[in-house]
Amino acid sequence: MPELPEIVALERFLAEHAVGAVVGRIDVAALSVLKTFDPPITALSGRDVTGAGHWGKYLGLECGGLWLITHLSRGGWLRWLDEPSPHPPKPGKGPLALRVHFFTPEGSTPAFDLTEAGTKKRLAVWVVPDPAQIPQIARLGPDALEISEDEFAERLGATSQRLKTVLADQTVIAGIGNAYSDEILHAAKLSPFATSSTLGAEKTAQLYEAMRTVLTDAVNRSVGQDAARLKGEKRSGLQVHARPGLACPVCGDTIREVAYTDKSFQYCPTCQTGGKILADRRMSRLLK
Fold it and tell me: What CATH number was assigned to the domain covering residues 4-138?
């Protein structure tokens, strides 16, 4: 799933490539991704693209008083096309969900695709005058790269969730998902199962600094990359996430995994848990 660094990079990519253009035809290949119908998505056609923005993991394009907002979900992505097909795509089971065509001042006619593998599209698209009208955006906590250290400490202290859970809770802090929460906890040398309300001032400051460092470094690596290269850039910078069984690049210990029904997370025992192996629910064991 694209998280805050990739969404920021996509926002800046759209600001560079789409702002100043005029929206042309919009092809809807998967009607299920449209979450609003008034105004219709066709209302964007003919409008000037005046800005781009993001709200946590939500990406937006401002089009003459309306916003086209998308959440790419777990498997969605944005693909830029310099020379798209002039023919409307056929609705079906392919990855394409939506295609937005543009007319640029230079006379070119690019487009971007919103795609998602699989037959079930979880990717979502809204057309609204104000992004805050989308309930999911209205409930977001402050952006992970904009929250102050004091507010971060206050929000963590107000909940008793495990750190792995609270970092990815979008109502607490917006923009962090499964991958970067693993990376942040590894950088902070904290257990994913540590409880936020009992962290203490020193470790809370340590976690805040790790969050800022990991996300800022990821943004710096991602911004300026072509949209198609962002997934690879994200993977190349990961230290523990999606690397079970490999050596930790910091200490050399074997990276371990805890798996649930539909997701998993990774950590380094030496760096984060004092050498303790966390219980894996696949083996019907729970950490107490």
Answer: 3.20.190.10
- Distance between CA 177 and CA 170 in Å, rounded? 9
Contact between 266 and 238 under an 8 Å Cβ cutoff? The reply is: no
| pLDDT for residue 285 | 45
Q: Which residues contact 15 (CB under 8 A, 6 or more apart)?
A: 51, 52
Structural class in CATH, domain 149-283 = mainly alpha
162: left (phi over 0), alpha (psi -120 to 50) or beta: beta
> Cβ(222)–Cβ(230) under 8 Å?
yes
Low-confidence ranges of the chain (pLDDT < 50): 284-288
Residue range 160-194, pLDDT digits in tens: 999 999 999 999 999 999 999 999 999 999 999 99
Around Cβ 70, how many Cβ atoms within 10 Å?
Answer: 23
**Domain boundary assignment for the chain:** 4-138, 149-283
